[in-house]
Amino acid sequence: MIRRRPLLTLGAATVALPAGLLAGRAVHAAALVGQPAPDFSLTDTTGKTVRLSQFKGKPVVLEWNNPGCPFVRKHYQGNLQSLQKTYTAKGVAWLAINSTRDDSADYLPPPQLARWMTDQGASPTATLMDEDGTVGATYGARVTPHMYLIDALGVLVYAGGIDSIPSARAADIEKATNYVRQGLDELLAGKPVSKSTSLPYGCSIKYRNGTA
C-alpha cells in the first residue's frame, strides 16, 4: 500500500488531514475554466480510440479515476454509478480517465480496469487509458476523483471536487452539495454553471514523471 501524504494545500496555508487525503495543487495547464476544453484522443479499455471533440454538441463529464484510491471507492458506493446512469440517459457524455502510470501499485491494465468498472455497476460512456499522463497534465488533474464539466459548445465550465465535503466517508455523500450534479442540472436547463471551481480532494495521481 502506498502511503499518501496527508496534506491539504489552501493558498499559502497547509492543513493536516487524514492519511490519503490530498487536494489539487495549482499548476500551469492548457485547460482553463471559461475557455475551450483542449481536445484529446485516448484509447478506451477495449482499445478503441475516443476523441473528446466527437462529443461536441452535448455536455461532457471528465472523471479522473483510480480504483486503488479510497476516495474513488467511496464515491463508487452508489454515488458515481447513479450519476453516470442518470446523466448519460439525458445525453451527457461521461469519460472516466485513468492517468496512473503503469509501474504503480495502483495501476490496473485495461482488461482489469474494465472488469472493476463492470463489477461496480458503472456506466460511463467510456473508460480511457492515459498511462503517460499527457491528458491529465493538460487538464491539471491532481487527484482522484478530479472532476471537470464541459458544455455543449466545448467550453470548460467546471473544474474541482465532486462535492463539498472532503472526506473518505460514504456517509458524507448525502450531506454534501454535489457540484457535478448541480452543474449538469444547470447546463441541461440552459443556465450558466453557478459554481465553476472548487477545491478537488482525493488521492494524488501517480504520474509517470512523478510530479503529482
TrEMBL record:
PROSITE patterns: THIOREDOXIN_2. Residues 1-29 form the signal peptide. InterPro entries: AhpC/TSA, PRX-like1, Thioredoxin-like_sf, Thioredoxin_domain. Gene3D superfamilies: Glutaredoxin. It holds the Pfam family AhpC-TSA. Residues 31-189 form the Thioredoxin domain. Keywords: Signal. This is Thioredoxin family protein. It comes from Hydrogenophaga bisanensis.
